[in-house]
Amino acid sequence: MALLVDKHRPRTLETLTYHSDLTARLRSLAASGDFPHLLIYGPSGAGKKTRITATLRALYGPGVEKIKIDSRVFQTTSNRKLEFNIVSSNYHLEITPSDVGNYDRVVVQDLLKEVAQTQQVDASAKQRFKVVVINEADHLTRDAQAALRRTMEKYSPNLRLILLANSTGNIIAPIRSRCLLVRVAAPTVEEIGDVLGRVGKKEGYKSCEPLESRIAKDSGRNLRRALLMFEAVHAQNDNVTEKTPIPPPDWEALIEVIAKEMIEERSPARILQVRAKLYDLLTHCIPATTVLKTLTFKLMPKIDDAIKAEIVKWSAFYEHRVRTGSKVIFHLEAFVAKFMRIYEGYEGNLGIADAQKKSSGQLGQSSDQSNTTTNPAQTAEGQAQAAERGEKTAENIRYGQTLSETGGMGGMTKGMDGATEQGGYGKLDDVEGEGSGAKESRRQQGYGGKEDMDREIGA
Hints:
Elements (H helix, E strand, L loop, with lengths): L3 H4 L12 H12 L6 E4 L6 H13 L7 E8 L5 E8 L3 E4 L8 H13 L13 E5 L7 H13 L4 E7 L7 H5 L2 E4 L5 H15 L5 H10 L4 H14 L13 H15 L3 H16 L4 H12 L5 H20 L3 H31 L21 H26 L3 H8 L19 H10 L4 H8 L2
Parallel strand pairs: 1-6, 1-7, 4-5, 5-6
Antiparallel strand pairs: 2-3, 3-4
Helix pairs in contact: 2-3, 4-5, 7-8, 8-9, 10-11, 10-12, 11-14, 12-13, 13-14
């Protein structure tokens, strides 16, 4: 039994339900005698492939839907053999060169050259050229895109290219300049709700507009995903209502489990468990970039705001590694290990800080106070000790002033200034009643002399 997303896919331009201005533009291009190279781009689930299929039907008629799948073997310069699947009809070919990774240049060069050098077989065809649809054009390597540019220039009379991409950022400028760029925007929530209502009516489902609106919002404006969610809800529930839960996709639920395991335990054993689940996702054809992006979004609500920016930074770093590398599991597992290290370090620092806040060393403050502070000067006991230190300082100042007035410690200062009215420290002249021998003796004993200390200070 076919899925709803395939069963109710529009076959012609007239049956397309939204983006009517874009539909009219494609219809005029198909009717004109000069059909250009096209670069169709937009988010996933916006309807790019459906519009291309309808345009091809407008170009060649219903015969374009009679397709077959061929398996071709290409040989690289290093004598490595690549097995590649091609979906084709008598009028067009559909390929995904990015399936062979870094060897996509070989597929582009050999296959497109072979197609472009042959004339249209069907003499009754409306068009004299053949169309090659290239999926995931933004994942082609630079070498493959350069080979594609040369093919477009050399064999344009016999060949038209339709490139499908999510974004034009990774497509080189020479290709963009040789194509007519057509952007297919994601449908609005209201448009998705209308599509779900029409599909449900055709299938005989009970109408429930609040549930359809909720599915449209949860789908992220992805019509393909909305139809799959819509079918899953009706398959699991005989009677749907406004509050019927919407089951998440199995792969998304598994990524949620991975996120919880990464938070609960950070250890090499847990990394091995996560690796097994990542392999499970990859073997079920979930793209590595989708896994990494979804995992990051699942982790965000579970972590503190202080480390969210760093986690997003490393997620972007490893997403770039996934796109440029060949072993995606290495980079996915590296992101898991990096997250565990950052989270473990943050939890450790947070534990130390909490221990300092709750310890009795914070000037006797109890741990159950809500206004715990790490600044001792702001506590009541700290302020009392500061006041006590201030009183002692004031007392010392008053004591020094008293000594100065009575000729004690102040005599040292005046002696340093050379005053002669007192004989404290620094007084080297004869004390009354003593001869020059006493003066010389004090000079030999050192600065001021011991006798001066005994006589004036009375230690």
